[in-house]
Amino acid sequence: MTVAHILAPTLEEGARAALGAVVDPELDEPITDLGFVRSLEVDGHDVVVHLRLPTSFCSPSFAYLMASDAKDALTALPWTGRVVVALDDHHDSDLINAGLAADAGYRGTFRHEAEQDLEGLRTTFRRKAHTAAMERCLTALLRSQPDRDVTSLGAVTLADLPSGEHTEALRRRRAALGLPDDPVALVMVDHDGHGYPPEEVPLRLRRARSTRISIDGNAHFCRGLLRTRYPGSEADQAPRHDDPVFIPLTTLQAPKEHTT
């Protein structure tokens, strides 16, 4: 057995871990968890990856973003040589794959069809992901403290959040937007890091919850579509650990003022 054969499983694990850092911009989940990685082959220092999506008409911009990020993640590994990432069964597969092979970039691939640059698109979805992560943390806090006044959530800081998956996810989303990670930093902030007055907090939380529900709903829907399109793909999808406890949006109303 050659050294290459001995190292192959380790290298493949490293490549798969790198792909695990690539996130669907709309669903805010790793492409490996969603089952979007159809195949991964490592041959020496060469890596070939095929991606698949729930439908043939998924947004070309999102498709390119994931494929490009996957290639960048694999190319950044210290041992990789030739890296090929191909998108299968999409109506723009030929165009996207040619652009990736030529390292043409987003605008070079789509030319006049590119409505905005890739970083602008990335920022839009990073903001949505941050909003959803913020809502998860604050709603979890409400669940653990059911008698808490909703308006007080505007004063919650990062130090007030319990350690755990939701808090770590929020910190990652904040870092992606350049928001402060100090313990005294407010949790409920806009995309520029500005907080809200108490009277605005219930409405802002409701809007954030709508964003989170939209992301989670789309993720469930796309997972189901992928299973239908590619039977057996459910084996490649990581299970979701959704909290079944539900707080109706109507409970997030600001308390009425009492008159004397």
Features:
single chain, 260 residues, mainly alpha, GMP Synthetase, Chain A, domain 3, 2 domains, three-stranded mixed sheet, 8 helices, 7% strand, elongated, disordered N terminus
Percent of residues in β-strands = 5-15%
What's the tally of helices? 8
- What is the strand arrangement across the widest sheet? 1-2-3
CATH fold description of the largest domain: GMP Synthetase, Chain A, domain 3
- Reading the helices and strands in chain order gives HHEEHEHHHHH
- What's the CATH architecture of the largest domain? 2-Layer Sandwich
Low-confidence stretches: 1-6, 243-251
Number of distinct beta strands: 3
- What's the average pLDDT? 89
Class derived from helix and strand content: mainly alpha
| Biggest pleated-sheet summary | 3 strands, mixed
Could you state the CATH homologous superfamily of the largest domain? Fe-S cluster assembly (FSCA)
Give the CA-CA distance, first to last residue. Answer: 86 Å
Report on the structure:
The chain has 260 residues and is mostly helical. The protein has two domains: 7-113, Fe-S cluster assembly (FSCA) (GMP Synthetase, Chain A, domain 3, 2-Layer Sandwich); 122-217, no CATH class. It is 47% helix and 7% strand. It has eight helices and three strands; from the N terminus they run H-H-E-E-H-E-H-H-H-H-H. A three-stranded mixed β-sheet has the order 1-2-3. Helix 6 (118-144) runs antiparallel to helix 7 (165-177) and helix 6 (118-144) crosses helix 8. The chain starts with a helix and ends in a 31-residue tail after the last helix. The model is unreliable at 1-6 and 243-251 (pLDDT under 50).
